[in-house]
Write a structure and sequence with these properties.
- 2 copies of one chain form a homodimer.
- By secondary structure, the first copy, chain A, is α/β, with parallel strands linked by helices.
- Chain A has 2 domains: 118 residues, Enolase-like, N-terminal domain (Enolase-like, domain 1), CATH 3.30.390.10; 240 residues, Enolase-like C-terminal domain (TIM Barrel).
- The first copy, chain A, is 36% helix and 20% strand.
- In chain A, the strands form 3 sheets. In chain A, strands 4, 5, 6, 7, 8, 11 and 12 form a 7-stranded mixed beta sheet that branches. Chain A has a 3-stranded antiparallel beta sheet with strand order 1-2-3.
- The longest helix of chain A is centred in the N-terminal third of the chain and has 19 residues.
- At the A-B interface, helix 2, helix 4, helix 9 and helix 11 of A face helix 2, helix 4, helix 9 and helix 11 of B.
Chain lengths: 384, 384
């Protein structure tokens, strides 16, 4: 089997989510947003798919020439090839982009063989407990504007089945944010509201000082929080070593730091966190995410998977170690999570009443793609 | 798909290889030896196979009850299950045995899906350079009885296509062995005989002192050897740290040390070797061998695969990092390597004129099993 084409088809859809000036997502009035379907097609008529793939020029001009003519089952060779090409082209070949390519290759293999990806990898389980992962705080009444609002939202998520809840708190460009004391107040309000019924985590402002991070961490310990995520710039590994030494609450990271499994290896050796972290978008696909999981397993270190979507879910279902939770979100009281992907006929991460997300048993990644929707909303103008 | 049976069928064959009192293989007059075929069968009529599986009682009484009723595609779950059961049952659930089970599960998946295992893993290449790996030294004229005999055998291997050659030298129970100076003499004789045409490696007596190992290593550096393997007991990690610090020749290990990928992780952190090592028999299958490769890749450490056979070959063809060589052997001037497996219609590791071994493109591990031979030579008496 040979790859004959790699395409990126942008399409519009009505969205209620947009990013603020600092890149954080919030609810907004409905508008036309853009998504992109990447398709890797073969001479045997079988294709693999993944959503994402921005900028589409990178797919068309950089990735396609690297893949056409190759055997799509040579995922390791192809991942190494695009990874090595990142060196001179990081501005287009981001880890997120090569992760989309790798996921499309896994989807293709699963479709070709009639198996869900997690079983190709070697299955470990078919469902994973999910945590409700909130959007960042805001200043909107009824939203996530007060500590008590987080508490109410946690209770609402508990009622929907979630057994765990993670706060993203207030961040710039909110003028008075960040505020360590207000972060702690929100964490306290959630614990007081839901009692011991939920595991709770905090992912706060990512650029706190050492002292601010230590203060928050100590307070989270008193509140019996489950983990503490990325309170400082992850490029300063020494600060994480310093923090991890002083806290008993598990510090989780690195998440957004560049360097794929190599960086996770260095963090383990340095003792820069208690639990490692990565998702298909952070490390560049399922292939390196499994490498990261295998690295962590070799050191007896837990790895929590960052972000949702089928690539992360299939990886979680093939890991021999926790990944304890699937990240479901980002959630907000104003938004219906299950209505966000009109380009799919069904969502990728259905949750049962016990708060567990079930992996698709369909071939590949289990995308249930609404091709009519994508055709009807295709952006035909040449994209940037 | 569910596993319905796990069987171990011993059978006899005529062999010219036997172990001495220290466990080292040598040529002997032909006699009846025993091999064992492990079969994992499913309710859909598809089976996976692997040879090995001693003692058969462990397969029948310990492994079978753990596997029957399980989905054979849940390799990660099943590997964790048998690995955890090792704790109280190491005397039967050796890493070699659980490696046979894991390989049979990979073979099953490949047969079920019509794909060679290395493509399920994600292919990186379809051939690997081989090194001729000798048996240990002996005292038989025409065998491996003198330094010059090693030199002649290396030249013969070069003529057959091999581009690399690894000596196993003289070991007990030979009364005067081991002898560091004679090991070095053999290494020198090989280098002088083949010149720069071959990469050369030494795997000598495994219980030398620090000083003996350092002496040999320094001499190998002068002879431009490619790596230096297991000259000391691998349980003494500090000795390997000491040796690796003082030698420029790459020290390779651990190989036979227990502890799967966990032990390799500790060696990397300790700096106990330059290159890591493992094979399906050492770490318990393809599943943990790939974990070990991913661990090593995360640290930029090379991993050379120990031993031959299709499990190791498929792993090598799915690794994104070297594995530079496939170990072909053990070889001896008296023996025809390709005649050793009469239970197969064709050998698992055919080598081309350039000295590269090609991975099978047949489904699964590519065993070309002669079931008639196995039936005709089946051992029906209850084994121990």
């Amino acid at each position: 089997m040979k790859i004959v084409d790699v395409t990126a088809q942008p399409f519009t859809y009505r969205s209620q989510i947009a990013r603020d000036s600092e890149g954080h997502s919030h609810p907004v009035p409905e508008y036309d947003a853009t998504e992109c379907l990447v398709e890797i097609s073969t001479d045997e008529g079988i294709s693999g798919y993944c959503f994402g793939g921005h900028p589409v020029g990178a797919i068309r001009q950089v990735v396609k020439p690297m893949l056409v003519g190759e055997d799509p089952f040579y995922r390791e060779k192809l991942w190494q090839k695009v990874k090595q090409a990142q060196r001179g082209s990081r501005e287009v070949l981001s880890d997120r982009l090569i992760g989309v390519v790798d996921q499309a290759l896994w989807d293709l293999a699963g479709r070709a063989l009639g198996q869900p990806v997690y079983k190709l990898l070697g299955g470990a389980r078919d469902k994973v407990p999910a945590y409700a992962s909130t959007m960042c705080g805001d200043e909107v009444a009824g939203g996530l504007n007060t500590p008590e609002a987080y508490g109410e939202f946690a209770a609402q998520c508990r009622a929907e089945g979630y057994t765990a809840f993670k706060l993203h708190t207030w961040m710039p460009p909110i003028p008075w944010a960040p505020d360590p004391k207000r972060d702690v107040a929100a964490c306290r309000a959630v614990r007081e509201r839901v009692g011991d019924e939920m595991a709770l985590m905090l992912d706060c402002f990512h650029h706190y000082s050492r002292e601010e991070a230590l203060y928050i961490g100590k307070e989270l310990e008193k509140l019996d929080y489950h983990w503490f995520e990325e309170p400082m710039d992850e490029h300063n590994v020494s600060s994480y070593v310093w923090l991890t030494e002083q806290l008993s609450i598990p510090v989780l990271g690195p998440e957004t730091a560049e360097g794929q499994m190599f960086t996770r290896a260095e963090w383990i050796v340095r003792g820069a966190s208690d639990m490692s972290r990565g998702g298909v978008g952070d490390v560049g696909g399922i292939t390196p995410l499994m490498k990261t999981a295998h690295l962590c397993e070799s050191f007896g270190v837990r790895m929590e998977v960052h972000g949702g979507g089928p690539g992360n879910l299939h990886a979680l279902c093939a890991m021999g170690i926790p990944g304890e939770y699937y990240e479901r979100g980002l959630l907000h009281p104003f938004l219906d999570y299950e209505q966000r992907t009109p380009w799919l006929n069904s969502i990728v991460d259905p949750m049962d009443e016990a708060g567990c997300v079930h992996v698709s048993q369909q071939p590949g990644l289990g995308w249930d793609i609404n091709f009519d929707f994508i055709r009807a909303n295709a952006v035909t103008a040449p994209p940037g």
